[in-house]
Write a structure and sequence with these properties.
The chain is globular and about 50 Å long. It contains 10 helices and 10 strands. It has one domain: TIM Barrel (Alpha-Beta Barrel), CATH 3.20.20. It is of the alpha/beta class. 38% of the residues lie in helices and 14% in strands. 45% of the residues are buried. Helix 1 (37-49) crosses helix 2 and helix 2 (71-85) runs parallel beside helix 3. The chain has an 8-stranded parallel β-sheet.
Length: 302
């Protein structure tokens, strides 16, 4: 299975690790840690050394209740980082929903648009819509994420009903809209949007029944890293965002990434790259052993 992006044809036979690079002062997990261009680029190099396959650069926090960022501020945060990151020799994804930012980063050579709004953000008064920016590019990759409502209200009124069937239908419709605009399906991946307008139970339902989401026919990106549902399930005390000890969520995050891959996800979007890469190597060793033609279960040896 190949994911076609601007500069790279990514082979998804091996699960890919997408490293999160937040160029923000207020992201829920690591806001402010890499807010300058120099710090963000140093972070990119560290994550690549730890084994990341892709870098996902974002300038606006989309945590629950987050205040929207102006276009000018997002461009000031993101463009200097993307301009240098595209020189690192790996696929560069940009986490944005604004069509003007999409166009600007694609002009700089970015490979993937990762959009929490799945290209539904209203078009500006002048200029192209998000769908137009992506469809008019010859081969950039795109990740279509499901989000219920919007960041300021999504956790105030979460989804109701069968979340899996609703997310699957959303994938099918969103991807079909792009295909009708001429976007090859090899350019599209989908993300169920863990934590974006879903309850804890709904988030874990998406994981438990993840195989059903694969029926849409597109590679799946799983973004469980450091989400509050993991804290709830693992009994970690919920702390204020300003004092969040993100390392407490590392083990649950790696566990969820492995479960997602085991259930068919081809990309995992993570903060803890080294630990996730190590865990996936263990999973891969077991998977490759089971796939080997000369493997004989211990109990069957003669």
């Amino acid at each position: 299975m190949i994911w076609q992006t601007s500069r790279f044809s990514i082979d998804l036979f091996r699960p890919q690790v997408m490293a999160i690079v937040n160029v923000t002062p207020d992201s829920f997990s690591d806001g402010g840690s890499h807010a300058s261009t120099a710090l963000a680029l140093a972070r990119c190099e560290l994550l690549l050394a730890q084994g990341a396959d892709l870098l996902d650069i974002g300038g606006e926090s989309t945590r629950p209740g987050a205040t929207p960022l102006s276009l000018d501020d997002e461009l000031k945060r993101v463009l200097p980082v993307v301009r240098e990151a595209v020189k690192l020799g790996v696929p560069i994804s940009v986490d944005t929903y604004k069509p003007q930012v999409m166009q600007a980063v694609l002009d700089l050579g970015a490979d993937v648009i990762n959009d929490i709004w799945a290209l539904r953000w209203p078009a500006p008064s002048s200029g192209n819509s998000s769908q137009s920016v992506v469809s008019q590019h010859p081969n950039c990759g795109v990740c279509l994420m499901h989000m219920h409502r919007e960041p300021q209200t999504m956790q105030v009124s979460p989804m109701e009903g069968d979340v899996v069937s609703q997310v699957l239908l959303f994938f099918e419709q969103s991807a079909q809209n792009l295909k009708e605009l001429g976007v090859d399906m090899k350019r599209i991946v989908v993300d169920p949007g863990i934590g974006f307008g879903k309850t804890v139970a709904q988030n874990f339902s998406l994981l438990a029944r993840q195989h059903e989401l694969l029926l849409a026919g597109y590679p799946l990106l799983a973004g469980w890293s450091r989400k509050s549902s993991l804290a709830a399930a693992s009994g970690i005390e919920t702390k204020s965002l300003s004092k969040l000890d993100s390392r407490e969520r590392m083990i649950p995050s790696v566990s969820a990434a492995l479960l997602a891959v085991e259930r068919g996800a081809r990309i995992v979007r993570v903060h803890d790259v080294r630990e996730t890469v190590q865990a996936l190597k263990v999973w891969s060793a077991a998977f490759n052993t089971l796939e080997s033609s000369d493997y004989i279960p211990t109990g069957d040896k003669k």
